Amino acid sequence: MRVDKLLSEMGKASRKESARLARLGKILVNGTAVKKCDIHVDPEKDEIVFCGERIVYKRFTYIMLNKPEGYVSATEDGYEKTVLDLLPEEERRKNLFPCGRLDKNTLGLMILTNDGENAHKLLSPKNHVSKTYRFKSKLPISKEDKQRLEDGIDIGGYLTKPCKIELFDGSASGDITITEGKYHQIKRMLEAVDNKITYLERIAFGTISLDSSLGRGEWRYLTENEEKNLLEGENI
Questions:
Q1: Residue 175 and residue 202: Cα distance in Å, rounded?
Q2: Could you tell me the pLDDT band of residue 180, with boundaries at 50, 70 and 90?
Q3: What domains sit in the chain, N to C, each tagged with a CATH number?
Q4: Quick check: 236 pLDDT over 80?
């Protein structure tokens, strides 16, 4: 792999920036300053130091984000703030994108990655990766409506797949776990039983649960175990 490509993938510098910094002696390979960035290195064996920082190469990045209200799940938008605006510039350089979507006013767990192949698998309907949401509804949900929702309900020409609902005291709030992600699905499901969602927060995606230590708008990298469990868990 070329040095400039490695630094670009790691979000450290563009290829043009790498070339400029190499001429200034800011890039070391195995202790020796390189003046050109077209040399090839082995990320697993060679030691690369960029502006005094040792670079540990990682092909793909997985980030857990606690999405706040008012941000859209997109890489760019001409009018709205996107979830990528919550990340520092170094991370935005890595070509990250949301793995799945949350509505602008839906809160909670988002996975951001640049691993297109595995993101596709995680989102593929045939793999039935579960997503759990905490919700509040305008009206209490009756036992009958709970059963209708869990069995699958028509949301306008589409019959939803079976889901699981855990109701809390008062029955106007709870957790709902689905294995698909149709447009505004949970809101449409509640509307189908003459009710309305008033609060919605994703708290789990597959094997990953939202880190309670993350405030709204905060993020962290997935741990190695979290990545492994996410990609190997459930039906992936």
A1: 9
A2: very high
A3: 3-55 (3.10.290.10), 62-125+208-232 (3.30.70.580), 130-205 (3.30.70.1560)
A4: no
Structure confidence by residue, pLDDT tens digits, 120-178: 999 988 888 999 999 999 999 999 999 999 999 999 999 999 999 999 999 999 999 99
Sign of CA dihedral 224, 114, 183, 74: positive
Mean pLDDT confidence for 68-78:
91
Nearest 5 degrees, angle CA 165-CA 99-CA 177? 5
**What token pair was written down for 119?**
């993101």
For the question of residue 103 being annotated catalytic, the response is yes
Cα–Cα nearest to 133, from 93, 95, 170, 184: 184
Find the catalytic residue in 46, 103, 175, 211.
103
Give ∠ CA 226-231-234 in degrees, rounded to 5: 100
Strand blocks (E) in 68-183 = 97-98, 107-113, 131-137, 164-167, 173-178
Tally DSSP H helices, then E strands, for the chain. Answer: 7, 13
